[in-house]
Design a protein that fits this description.
Number of helices: 6
Distance between the termini: 67 Å
Number of domains: 1
Strand order of the largest sheet: 1-12-7-4
InterPro entries: FTHF_cligase-like_sf, LUD_dom, NagB/RpiA_transferase-like
Protein name: LUD domain-containing protein
Low-confidence stretches: none
Mean pLDDT: 89
Number of strands: 12
Pfam family, one: LUD_dom
Largest sheet: 4 strands, parallel
Helix content: 25-40%
Radius of gyration: 23 Å
Organism: Streptosporangium carneum
CATH topology: Rossmann fold
C-alpha cells in the first residue's frame, strides 16, 4: 500500500516540476447568450420540425382547435381517462379524467393510459420541451411514469434557443427537459423506447 502511495506521489511531483515554469493561460469561454437563428424563421414551424425529428407526434392547431385535437389524440390511443395535473385549462381535458389529488402512487401512474400537460417553455432550435412543475404541468412523476404523454405548447412559450429558455427558467424548480419520447440504445445501437420515461410523446402546438 505504501509503495503505491509513494509511486503516486513521485508521479505527481514530476508533473508539478514539469509545469512549474509554464505560463498561465487565460481560458476564454465565449458561451452563446442568444439562440436567434442567422435568418428569420417561424419558431412554431422550426419547433414542430425539430420535435418531430425525435419521433414525437406533432399537431399545429389554432386556440379553438385544442380540445378537439386532444380528444382525437386520446381516442386514437385508446386513453379514456388520462391523468391531468392541477391548473390545466378546463377546456383542454376530456370529461373523464384522473386527478393527482391525493398524489397517485407509482403503480397507479404506471397503470394510467396517459397524461395531458402544458409546459413552461419550448426550444425551437433543439425541439425540446421544458417542464418546471408549474400550473398545468404537475409533479415530475406524472410525465415520467405513464407510457403516453400529450403536451400542449403555446406559440408564445416557444423561444429560439437554449440560452433564452435558461433565462426564463428558475433553476431552483424541478426542471424536466424533454426531447422526444424516452429512448436509449444498447451497445449494438438497437433503439429501445420507454425505458426511463413515456414511450410515446404527442405535442399539440397552439399557434
Amino acid at each position: 500500500m505504501n509503495g503505491r502511495a509513494d509511486g503516486r506521489e513521485l508521479i505527481l511531483s514530476r508533473i508539478r516540476a514539469a509545469v512549474a515554469s509554464a505560463p498561465d493561460v487565460e481560458i476564454t469561454r465565449a458561451y452563446r447568450t442568444s439562440g436567434v437563428p442567422p435568418e428569420p424563421v417561424d419558431l412554431v414551424e422550426l419547433f414542430a420540425e425539430r420535435v418531430a425529428d425525435y419521433r414525437a407526434v406533432v399537431h399545429v392547431v389554432e386556440e379553438e382547435g385544442v380540445p378537439a385535437a386532444i380528444a382525437a389524440a386520446l381516442a386514437l390511443r385508446g386513453v379514456g381517462r388520462p391523468v391531468v395535473p392541477d391548473g390545466l385549462p378546463p377546456g383542454w381535458a376530456p370529461r373523464e379524467t384522473v386527478t393527482d389529488d391525493p398524489p397517485l402512487g407509482p403503480a397507479e401512474l404506471d397503470a394510467a393510459g396517459g397524461v395531458v400537460t402544458g409546459c413552461a417553455v419550448a426550444i425551437a432550435e433543439t425541439g425540446t420541451i421544458v417542464l418546471d412543475a408549474g400550473p398545468g404541468q404537475g409533479r415530475r412523476a406524472l410525465t415520467l411514469v405513464p407510457d403516453y404523454h400529450l403536451c400542449v405548447v403555446r406559440a408564445g412559450q416557444i423561444v429560439a434557443g437554449v440560452p433564452q429558455a435558461v433565462a426564463l427558467l428558475d433553476p431552483a424548480r424541478p426542471l424536466t427537459w424533454i426531447s422526444g419520447p424516452s429512448a436509449t440504445s444498447d451497445i449494438e445501437l438497437n433503439r429501445v423506447e420507454g425505458v426511463h420515461g413515456p414511450r410515446t410523446l404527442e405535442v399539440v402546438i397552439v399557434r
